[in-house]
Amino acid sequence: MPSRRILRPATPVLRRGPGELQYGTDPRWAVRFVGLDAAEESWLASWGATPVRRPDDAALAPARREALVRLLDDARLLVAPPRRPVSPAPGGGEADARVLGALLPDGAAHRVLARRARSVVAVVGLGRLGASLVTTLATAGVGTVTVHDPSPVLVTDVGLGGFRVRDVGARREEALARAVGEISTDVRVVAGDASPPDVVVVVEHRAADPGRVRELVGDGVAHLSVVVREADVLVGPFVRPGLDPCLRCLDLHRADADPCWPQVVQQLRAATAPEHEEAVLAAVAASVAAGQVLAAVDGTVPRAAATCIEIPAPDAVPRLRETAPHPSCGCGGLASAPPDGAPLRRSARTSGRGRG
Q1: For 158-167, which contacts have Cβ atoms below 8 Å and span 24 or more sequence positions?
Q2: Does residue 304 contact residue 235 with C-beta atoms inside 8 Å?
Q3: Alpha carbons 142 and 184: distance in angstroms, whole number
Q4: What is the largest CA-CA distance in the chain?
Q5: Which residues is 146 bridged to in the sheet?
Q6: Cα angle 6, 54, 70; round to 5
Q7: How many C-beta atoms lie closer than 10 Å to residue 330's C-beta?
Q8: Helix (H) or strand (E) holding 322
Q9: Where are the domains positioned within the chain?
Q10: What residues does 225 pair with on adjacent strands?
């Protein structure tokens, strides 16, 4: 085996029985090696996830070693020794790197963490859900988080997302910036406007308002809608302008199915009732929303780009509702749209920098 490759880190090697080894437990990539003799089983089991731990190559004939290496290659179990990530996440992102390395063909998690470190994500609305989303993004190594919500921290905000009793009455965006500073001093949290964001998340109550994100659509900025409703939370759509159904598309589809919807939704948007966020729904929705944002920042297509994710009480098990562009909307004709799968629009702060 080439000296520059090792067994993919965090891959357990398990003995199933005589002559049979299993690599990994995740059904997406777990693989079994069967029909091994004792020497082959010992040789395969001796490979470690560090360059220091080496098997005894003299234990097998060269041709058989090459054949086993090809099997390891076909199973994508061999990668280059990982580089130490440089990340503002706690512990330098080591916890995230092991999982990300399992998902990447080359195991190069440091590149993903470097991309997160250069990213700017804006979150509008900092109740329980928005605050939890911000702290999750900071913990995952997003370098700059812009927060928007000047309203005061309520007693019902305390707990999730880092708000404490001492924060009650303070501006949410300022209290949350302090909370994130206790998680990582390397994550930049900005209250109000800052560098142009790569992704904007808008947390609303009762119904989404397409007017709030009209400028983002025009500027080609990716954004995610999160709506807290009576007893569920709707995460999505994730809109890459010109590629995915927008919030106006959803309104038009709803109006097609219910002619009274425009009148109903206008009342929902105008309502001034207290905006409370149930603990479990807020926690689960924040995690789901963070997953969508990080998927986009990491360079993949978020699931919510073609789906709205409904998270209902009491069990908070997500369910998917497919979405589609509306023929009357016209949002799909934006000239600024990148090709599908292309990196998101980069912020002015990060454009021109090399990748990790």
Answers
A1: 159/128, 159/279, 160/128, 160/129, 160/131, 160/132, 160/279, 160/282, 160/283, 160/286, 161/126, 161/128, 161/129, 161/130, 161/131, 161/132, 161/133, 161/134, 161/135, 161/286, 162/131, 162/135, 163/131
A2: yes
A3: 11
A4: 78
A5: 122, 190
A6: 50
A7: 12
A8: strand 319-322
A9: 6-79, 118-333
A10: 202
Residue-level length of the chain = 356
Helix (H, G, I), strand (E, B) or coil at 295: helix
Identify the helix (H) or strand (E) that includes residue 64.
helix 62-74
First vs last C-alpha separation in the chain: 27
Paired sense of beta strands 13-17 and 20-23, if any: antiparallel
The CATH number corresponding to 118-333 among 3.40.718.10, 3.90.550.10, 3.40.50.720, 3.30.870.10 equals 3.40.50.720
Question: For each of the chain's 356 residues, which pLDDT tens digit applies?
Answer: 445 788 888 899 999 999 999 999 999 999 999 999 999 998 888 876 555 445 566 668 889 988 999 999 999 999 988 888 889 999 999 999 989 999 998 889 999 999 999 999 999 999 999 999 999 999 999 999 999 999 999 999 999 888 999 999 999 999 999 999 999 999 999 987 667 899 999 999 999 999 999 999 999 999 999 999 999 999 999 999 999 999 999 999 999 999 999 999 999 999 987 788 999 999 999 999 999 999 999 999 999 998 999 999 999 999 999 999 999 998 876 544 454 445 454 433 333 333 33
176 contacts 162 by C-beta, under 8 angstroms: yes
Convert 149-203 into a string of H (helix), E (strand) and C (coil): CCCECCHHHCCHHHCCHHHCCCEHHHHHHHHHHHHCCCCEEEECCCCCCCEEEEE
One-letter amino acid identity for 261? W
Three-state SS for 331? helix
Q: How many CB atoms lie under 10 A from the CB of residue 92?
A: 18
